[in-house]
Design goal:
The chain is an alpha+beta fold. It has a single domain (about 5-70), classed as Alpha-Beta Plaits (2-Layer Sandwich). Helices cover about 35% and strands about 25% of the residues. The chain has 2 helices and 4 strands. Strands 2-3-1-4 form a 4-stranded antiparallel β-sheet, with helices on one face. A hairpin with a 6-residue loop joins strand 2 and strand 3. The mean pLDDT is about 95.
Length: about 70
């Protein structure tokens, strides 16, 4: 299973739930979670074949910052 981790500026549960729903439409069957307590507001996606650029594009079009954590 592939895991991609992103730094975001998502700060509330409602937004994280909305973005999770949108991401699940693009990446069905994946495990998606936000850690809003972490200083990097981490978004973690577990699934084979995740395209990081697509994740960043989806989050960005909704007005939020997203970048890969290495």
């Amino acid at each position: 299973m592939m895991v991609e981790v992103f730094k975001t500026n998502v700060s509330c549960e409602e937004v994280s739930m909305m973005l999770t729903d949108i991401l699940l439409r693009h990446f069905p069957g994946s495990r998606i979670s936000f850690d809003l307590e972490d200083c990097d507001r981490v978004l973690r996606i577990e699934q084979e074949g995740i395209i990081p650029g697509k994740v960043i594009e989806i989050i960005s079009t909704k007005g939020y910052h997203c970048e890969m954590l290495l």
